[in-house]
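User: Some background: our group keeps a shared notebook of sequences we're curious about, and every so often someone picks one and asks for a predicted structure to add to the entry. Today it's my turn. The entry only has the sequence so far, pasted here. Could you supply the structure so I can complete it?
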Amino acid sequence: MQQQESTQAFTNIESKNLLHHLAIIMDGNGRWAQNRKKSRQSGHKVGAKNVRNITQWCLQYGIQFLTLYAFSTENWNRPKKEIDALMKLLEKYLKEESQTYHKNNIRFRAIGDIDFFYQPLKHLILDLESSTSSYTKMTQTLALNYGSKDEISRAFLRVIKSNVDLADLQTKTPKQIESLIAQNLDTHDMPNVDLLVRTGGEQRLSNFLLWQASYAEFYFSKTLWPDFDTKELQEIISDFYLRQRRFGAVEQ
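Assistant: Of course. Here's the predicted structure to add to the notebook entry:
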């Protein structure tokens, strides 16, 4: 039923494309603030409000999976003052949005290694994941202390630390190894990305969902994240429907 709702909402009659999983690299908060001679922290606050706007719009239009790049493994290189502000903002956002998740049947997920976060924030994330785990209307995933290379490395470690026989592992085909790794990724219970959007004008993936986006359609917007609105997202999705997704095959 959930898949049918998504199909009805986001399938163009003339397109074969289905949009189940939308991923967004939310870039431009700091530059947005600096352009207005404000602190970078103020840009992050406005950006957090836009997370709410975009999530509610995606919920309304039947997108099943929305994954947002919130804090990367490389973001620890930023000034401590900014990192501390980001952690407090994340904690505030999750507390305020808790009722929104419960009210709207939204499952909250986090991908990445959250063991690096301070304990109250880590427990808040885990508790929210647990309390919303049965919700089915939409899954909103925040990538937190996330890096795709780190995720793939952790998945490989899970494989070799499992009960699998190492001698048996050596006899498996590359396709079987690929399947084992996929089953141990943070996103093992989610579909691959259909459309990946990056705001802020940069045209790179920045170590985000490299495995899951191997056949995604990409769109790079010049709009800074705090100014990115649902009208532009609708235009991007309309463009997505016009693209030909052959997944390596020849068009029939």
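Suggested note for the entry: The first strand starts at residue 21 and ends at 25. The chain has one domain: 21-147+192-242.
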